[in-house]
Amino acid sequence: MEPDVCSSKGCRAPATWQLLWNNPKLHTADRRKVWLACDEHRESLSGFLGARQFLKDVVPHAAGSAADS
User: CA-CA distance, 37 to 55, in Å (whole number)?
Assistant: First the structure.
């Protein structure tokens, strides 16, 4: 089984963070989509989602725990 990797384009580093988000125009308020991030890309991915007001939470990632993607 391969490790979960960062969602940043072209990055193959192991994921250490889960960025939980939703688009309120498309998803119900309780729905959470998940992007995975390595330490290097946590801030840039958070900034992208935050600028659109999609980011809901950032939590540590345990391998195999991404609930939705």
Answer: 13
Which amino acid is located at 56 in the chain?
Answer: K
* 3-state SS track over 40-68: CCHHHHHHHHHHCCCEEEEEECCCCCCCC
The token duo for 35 is 């992007």
Structural domain harbouring 16:
1-69
Q: Could you report the per-residue pLDDT of 39-54, keeping only the tens digit for each?
A: 999 999 999 999 999 9
Number of other CB atoms surrounding residue 34 within 10 Å: 18
| Cβ atoms 37, 15 nearer than 8 A | yes
What tokens does 51 get?
Answer: 């600028």
Domain count, the chain: 1
